[in-house]
Specification:
Oligomer: single chain
Strand content: 5-15%
Shape: globular
Number of helices: 7
Radius of gyration: 16 Å
Distance between the termini: 23 Å
Largest sheet: 6 strands, parallel
Order of helices and strands: EHEHHEHEHEEHH
Length: about 210
Amino acid sequence: METKETDLHGNAPDSSPVVLLIIDMINDLEFPGGDELETPARKAADAIVALKRRAKAQKIPVVYVNDNFGRWRSDFTEVTDHVLHDGVRGRYLAEVLTPDSDDYFVLKPKHSGFYATTLDTLLTYLKASHLILTGISADSCILFTANDAYMRDLKLSIPADCVAAIKPTYTSEALAYMKRTLNADTTPSTELNLDELVQVDQDAEKVC
C-alpha cells in the first residue's frame, strides 16, 4: 500500500498543529464600501503584524489566503505588486503585511479559503488541527472559511482585534456567531498564548 509523502515535494516542509491564516489582507479595497473598511482594516493589520511576528517565533506556519480579484492569470506576487504599486486604497495593508519568503499562499476564487483551493491539502501536510483566522471581512470571508474549517473538525481561534468588517456591528455580530456556533475562541491577539496553544494541540495529538 502506498504511503503518504511527508511533504509536498519539499514545498511544505513545516509541521505544526497550529497554523495562522491571513485572509484577504493583500487587498486593494477598491470596491463599494472599501472606504469604510480602510480604517478598521488598517487597525486589524497592525494587530496581525504583531501576531505574525509572535507566531514566527513559535515556528507556527503562516498562510496567506487571498482573493484573486478576478485576475485569473495572476499569481500572488502580481496581486501583491498591484496593491503596493498601483496607487490603491489598500496599499498600507500590503506594506505592513508583505509576505515573507517562507510564508505559504493560496489564491481563492470565492469567499471560503477552502472552496476550489489547495488549502485543505496544505493543512493536511502541515498536520494542522487548530487554525488562527485573521483578516477581512469578518462577516464574509472569515465567516465562510471558519464554517468550512469547523466542518473539517479544525479548532478555531479568531482574535477579535485581528478581523474587521465595513461596520463595527458586522464584526461583533460575526464574532458572536462564530463563538456560539463554531466554538471559536475570540480572545484578542494580545491575550492569546501561542505557546500554550501549540503545546495543548501537540499533547492532544500524542493522546490520539
